Amino acid sequence: MSFPTCARCRRERCVLSVASAWPSVVAPALSALALQYPQLELRFDVQDRLVDLVNEGVDLDIRVGDDIAPNLIARQLAANHRVLCASPQFLARHAPPKQLSDLAALPCLVIKERDHPFGVWQLHSKEGQHAIKVTGPLSSNHGEIVHQWCLDGQGIALRSWWDVRENIASGHLVQVLPDYWQPANVWAVYVSRLATSAKIRTTVEFLRHYFQLHYPQHEPTASAVGRGD
For 157-192, what is each residue's pLDDT tens digit? Predict the structure, then answer.
């Protein structure tokens, strides 16, 4: 995919931030961006909190979820969702959940993400929205750690479809309660309008095309592998 040359981006520094659960997804995209636009100087910060774009000098924050303050400008980079999953070994030791309330009695792997309530999974289904309180012996603020624990059979995780799709296809993970999911759309959030900042416009457009190419949209209900019952 080709992009127009951005002469005004020369020797421009662009500071980006992302939640601690997402660096492995964003880092390859920024590497490709750097190859395409060597005149851009990129700084990539990983944060486990919401950043103050103005006071912290951040040009672009990549956020997951649709809850964005109205004073900020946002453009959706990709549609995504999270699914509930566990390893076959875990499901052999524990009765697979048959309804959402069963999660309260099972070990769950909880991620502390920015301003999200800890241990409360906000899920969607065809019937509407649901909130379930979950607990477990292991928790982290890093998605890759929780992903590995899930593969190790330590509990049920709520993970991005992007992260677990290959594990589910290979049988290393099994999707449970597939009628439930959590929206996890990816947004570029910034304070300067794209028309006034060539470096931000170039970065946002590149990331949007990159995610569309590497992470095509996948409907939540189409991702079901098994109900675990």
Answer: 999 998 999 999 999 999 999 999 999 899 999 987
SS3 content of the chain, % helix, strand, coil (to 5): 30, 30, 40
CA angle (203, 68, 212) in 5-degree steps:
40
Best CA proximity match to 147, nearest among 27, 24, 30, 17: 24
- Distance, in Å, from the CA atom of 15 to the CA atom of 40, rounded to the nearest integer, reads 10
38-42, 175-179, 216-220: range with highest mean pLDDT: 175-179
Domains (range + CATH), the chain: 14-79+185-214 (3.40.190.10), 81-183 (3.40.190.290)
Tokens representing 117?
């309530």
The backbone torsions φ and ψ at residue 116, rounded to the nearest 5 degrees and listed phi first, read -75, 140
Q: Give per-residue pLDDT as tens, 111-120.
A: 887 667 788 9
DSSP 102: G
* Strand extents, DSSP E, the chain: 12-19, 40-47, 60-64, 73-78, 81-86, 108-111, 120-125, 128-133, 139-140, 156-160, 174-175, 182-183, 186-190
Pairwise CA distance, residues 116 & 63, whole Å? 12
Token pair recorded at residue 88 = 């076959």
pTM: 0.80
